[in-house]
Amino acid sequence: MLKKLRFILYIAITITSLLGFVFPYKHPHFWWQKIPVFDAIFGFIGCIIIIIFSKWLGHHWLMKDEHYYD
């Protein structure tokens, strides 16, 4: 089940990336919109940064030591 889901995910990522190259912005407003698949790459990197920051915040600020209440 997990292998099938992972395969479907990879196919979806491949298709959307190819569509980003085939159908670029018609009238880009900013220079970075001229770069093919920039939005997907930017979103992916942004999600990774959010995950890393959340884990860091959780370990260094939210979690308490084991002997906190002793």
Account of the 3D structure:
By secondary structure, this protein is mostly helical. It contains 2 helices and no strands. The protein has one domain (2-62). The protein has helices at residues 2-22, 38-62. The protein is elongated. 0% of the residues are buried.
Short account of what is shown:
The chain is mostly helical and 70 residues long.
pLDDT below 50 for ≥5 consecutive residues: which ranges? none
The SS-based structural class is: mainly alpha
Element-level helix/strand string? HH
What integer is the average pLDDT? 88
What is the count of DSSP helices, taking H or I runs of 4+ residues? 2
Q: In total, how many beta strands?
A: 0
What is the terminal separation in angstroms? 45 Å
For the record, the count of structural domains works out to 1
Shape: elongated
Radius of gyration over C-alpha positions, nearest whole angstrom: 19 Å
Main sheet properties: none
Percent of residues in beta strands: under 5%
Q: Helical proportion?
A: 55-70%
Give the key terms:
70 residues, mainly alpha, 2 helices, 66% helix, 0% strand
In terms of topology, how is this protein built?
Layout: H1 2-22, H2 38-62
